[in-house]
From TrEMBL:
InterPro entries: Kynureninase (IPR010111), PyrdxlP-dep_Trfase (IPR015424), PyrdxlP-dep_Trfase_major (IPR015421), PyrdxlP-dep_Trfase_small (IPR015422)
Name of the gene: kynU
Name of the protein described by the UniProt record: Kynureninase
Region forming the signal peptide: none
Amino acids binding pyridoxal 5'-phosphate: T99, T100, F127, P128, S129, D130, D207, H210, Y232, W261, T289
Cell inner membrane among keywords: no
Assembly information from the UniProt record: Homodimer.
Family statement drawn from the similarity comment of this UniProt entry: Belongs to the kynureninase family.
Annotated positions of the N6-(pyridoxal phosphate)lysine modification: K233
Length: 422
């Protein structure tokens, strides 16, 4: 049986890949299982943020070119730290903007409607912000929402790659899909989808917000045209930390759809010419001046991440979520929970997803007992045991507390409505 504390402690003592919990600012007495929404702060991330604050204090304007982490090339330097995480060359990566801003940039660049090919293919389960951006880009090109094709889900939780491929028809000009679905945590087969798109002459890109830092990628090997992601979830970059994007080397020299001075060739940026001369590599897709303090924690966070390595992160993450699912089956049987994430390792991302008719009030009851889950309307509970700082003991404690909440019906004192930030 796995539903006892001794077993969980034994796993922590003997599992082959230890956590890096001591490197993080962990609040004792609190179980934090919301790292797929906002990762915890590491001590190194805190230090690099302080270091960049000091560079402003010590150098003033000269901080752009002086100091260990000069700001002028900071986006490239941090991008280079992500090469192993996403499987790309450093020249194909840049840290810039935010998820949605980067999506706008990439769609403005790669969406080129011509002849029959005027439509964008997405899915019906995607994060709303992506859909807002795609509709806005269609409108800018003079097309209405009928030109956005959204592949539906058979079960309301997952997508079938066969359905996506079947939707890659002759009228599709661009495809934008998630790497991992934000609710169910399903991993899409990005390699297969990319191959199928290219066989049909379609450009394809991926939103990796819920996959970067939780599963390995091989973007360059797969031939993905572009990708974009946030850095505050599994990468632990802090609230509002700068986003990142990937553009495959085969597209180098392509003029960005949205021009801005930080996308300039670095050698010519300060000539102040009114003729935009973009950088040749991924740096061309920057728009405005980098948000240095929103990038600074990533220097330390990614150093720590690369010390553990993405393969070990993935292995430990799966072990933790396997144990979570065992606890659900053994400790919550009969309490009305439904497991809605894929069970297979090849299909499951970095969190588990449960549904319950009283999900919102159950999440509130968990928080009252210092367990931090994530509620997703209308009835979803996401729980992420993060490889770098969560433990098997915390998994057991979480489900012991959840079982007690269900047994005593302690959740009934709360309203079954979401809080402002779910």
């Amino acid at each position: 049986m796995t539903n006892n504390l001794a077993y969980a402690k034994q796993l922590d003592a003997t599992y082959e890949i230890p956590s890096m919990r001591d490197e993080f600012c962990v609040t004792e007495g609190r179980i934090y299982f919301d790292g797929n929404s906002l990762g915890l702060m590491s001590k190194r991330a805190e230090q690099t943020l302080l270091d960049l604050k000091d560079s402003w204090q010590n150098y003033g304007i000269d901080g752009w070119t002086q100091g260990e982490n000069a700001w002028y090339f900071l986006a490239e330097k941090i991008g280079a730290q992500m090469t192993e995480i996403v499987g790309a060359k450093k020249e194909e990566l840049i840290v810039t903007g935010s998820t949605t801003v980067n999506l706008h940039q990439l769609v403005a660049t790669f969406y080129k409607p011509e002849g029959k090919r005027t439509k964008i293919l997405a899915d019906a389960l995607n994060f709303p912000s992506d859909i807002y951006a795609l509709k806005a880009q269609l409108a800018l090109k003079g097309y209405d929402e009928t030109h956005l094709v959204q592949v539906s889900s058979k079960d309301g939780q997952t997508l079938d790659e066969n359905d996506i491929i079947a939707a890659m028809t002759e009228d599709i000009a661009l495809i934008v899909l998630p790497g991992v679905l934000y609710r169910s945590g399903q991993i899409l087969d990005m390699a297969r989808l990319t191959k199928a798109a290219h066989e049909r002459g379609i450009v394809i890109g991926f939103d990796l917000c819920h996959s970067v830092g939780s599963v390995p990628h091989a973007l360059r090997e797969w031939g993905v045209d572009f990708a974009f992601w946030c850095t505050y979830k599994h990468l632990n970059g802090g609230p509002g930390s700068s986003g990142a994007l990937f553009v495959h080397e085969k597209h180098f020299g392509m003029k960005p759809g949205l021009a801005g001075w930080f996308g300039s060739d670095k050698e010519k940026q300060f000539t102040m010419s009114h003729t935009f001369e973009p950088a040749f590599e991924a740096g061309a897709f920057q728009i405005g001046t980098p948000n240095v303090f929103s990038m600074a924690p990533l220097l330390g966070a990614l150093e720590l991440f690369n010390q553990m390595g993405i393969e070990k992160v993935r292995q430990r993450s799966l072990a933790l979520s396997d144990y979570m699912l065992q606890c659900v089956e053994e400790m919550l049987d009969g309490y009305g929970f439904t497991i809605c994430n894929p069970m297979d390792h090849q299909r499951r991302g970095g969190h588990i997803y449960l549904e319950h008719e009283d999900a919102a009030r159950i999440c509130k009851a968990l928080k009252e007992r210092h367990v931090i889950p994530d509620f997703r309307a209308p009835k979803g509970v996401r729980l992420a045991a993060v490889a770098m700082y969560n433990t098997f003991e915390e998994v057991y404690q979480c489900f012991a507390i959840l079982r007690e909440i269900m047994e005593t019906k302690a959740y009934e004192k709360f309203s079954n409505e979401r809080e402002i930030v779910a």
